[in-house]
């Protein structure tokens, strides 16, 4: 009886141990793979989203922000999958870099955008201490990325948005936030859940959660 009790103690202690936030090799590899894959999505969205942006902005200046959400999804997915400090930022930056290297009309500003958008999503995951990865948190991370994009565009470029009207900037901020919550947050959360259901993320907490729900 004594031997059995002693043997079970380390297991019990281990089960209550705090989750490590240290990066593993598999975390780095998966972050890179996700970044490249999402970068290809960004590149494809450059035409679709760009056209949609112009069309919506033509209807109401600032409303084009509703098309931006897909470009914010990297940070959300990176944070939801890897769940470590810096994951949201790293995946968004890699995705932005891939999109830039393949070729787009925005050039190096794509990388700068990726940094601030990734930081916006990262801040939300940090607020929850990298312990909550629910749909509401994912949507908030999308909004965080959107706010980062809004602040960046407010000051960056030959014609920064700070030179435009208050009405434009308010409409643009609201449009970005809605797009970030839905196209980055909701779509990102569904994408991660779908990927986890295939077993591809079994080495991550989100994959283990998916197995328990089956």
UniProtKB/TrEMBL annotation:
Keywords: Membrane, Transmembrane, Transmembrane helix. InterPro entries: ABC_thiamin-permease_prd. The chain crosses the membrane at residues 25-45, 65-82, 89-106, 137-158, 170-192. This is Putative HMP/thiamine permease protein YkoE. It comes from Microbacterium trichothecenolyticum (Aureobacterium trichothecenolyticum).
